[in-house]
Design brief:
- This protein has helices at about 10-15, 20-45, 50-80, 90-125.
- With about 130 residues, it is mainly α.
- Helix 2 runs antiparallel to helix 3 (about 50-80) and helix 3 runs antiparallel to helix 4 (about 90-125).
- The chain is elongated.
Length: about 130
């Protein structure tokens, strides 16, 4: 609390900063992704990974990862455009780029797994004997 914008701020003023509040709200998407990933892992443990509910979880992970990357891009643009002249945003922008890359990789991986699970479910339906 002795450098930059926080020189003369109290604890309440620091945590009521609009950017900090934005980060708190944007982190909700991350925690939803984390929850869905644990739910998918529980499906894997129960041998229910090739089900329609697993596809729904993968779709939600994909969409929330895309939302998270958009929110990170918006935060990076805000910092790049409106940073204080005494502050160096290079560290934040490096972490921002890493966060966007990780979110895109998560979305792409969820998309690939979603297509694989859909393909396996379709193959199981084709090979199921008629009663």
């Amino acid at each position: 609390m002795t450098e930059g914008r926080a020189t003369n701020l109290d604890v309440f003023s620091i945590y009521s900063d609009p950017f900090i509040l934005y980060v708190y709200v944007a982190s909700i998407a991350f925690f939803i992704i984390l929850y869905k990933a644990f739910k998918l892992l529980s499906y894997i443990g129960q041998h229910r990974v090739f089900s329609s509910s697993a596809i729904k979880i993968l779709k939600r992970i994909k969409y929330y990862a895309i939302v998270l990357s958009i929110l990170i891009v918006m935060a990076g643009a805000y910092i790049k455009l409106f940073h204080h002249l005494d502050d160096d945003p290079a560290g934040f922008l490096a972490i921002y780029a890493l966060g966007v890359f990780a979110s895109i990789v998560i979305a792409a991986t969820a998309n690939v797994f979603e297509m694989i699970v859909q393909h396996v479910i379709a193959m199981k339906a084709e090979n199921k004997p008629a009663n």
